[in-house]
Amino acid sequence: KMDIFTSIPTHIDYVGQAKAEKLYRAIITLFSIVGFIWGYIVQQFSQSVYILGAGFILAAILTLPPWPMYRRNPLNWQNPRNTDEKSSG
């Protein structure tokens, strides 16, 4: 029953993190500029807030889940050491 939840990937790689952050910043910046301009044109601060909120929601949908585009460069982990070997310390 719980296999469906454990099969969902929950990680993104470092390159994916950088892509997600760039995309997030671009979306928030674009929507804040558009929101400011539109709010200034219609003289309604609430319109600016709504547009910025829409940008925040869009950015969250596109960057928070671990979409496959953020998991294309997996890390190559080292194999675990044999625990029977004595550590020299």
UniProtKB/TrEMBL annotation:
It is found in: Endoplasmic reticulum membrane. Its main location: endoplasmic reticulum. GO terms for biological process: protein targeting to ER; signal peptide processing. Keywords: Endoplasmic reticulum, Membrane, Transmembrane, Transmembrane helix. One of its GO terms (cellular component) is signal peptidase complex. Coiled coil: none annotated. The chain crosses the membrane at residues 23-42, 49-67. It comes from the Eukaryota. Pfam families: SPC12. It is a multi-pass membrane protein. Belongs to the SPCS1 family. Component of the signal peptidase complex (SPC) which catalyzes the cleavage of N-terminal signal sequences from nascent proteins as they are translocated into the lumen of the endoplasmic reticulum. Dispensable for SPC enzymatic activity. This is Signal peptidase complex subunit 1. It comes from Euripus robustus.
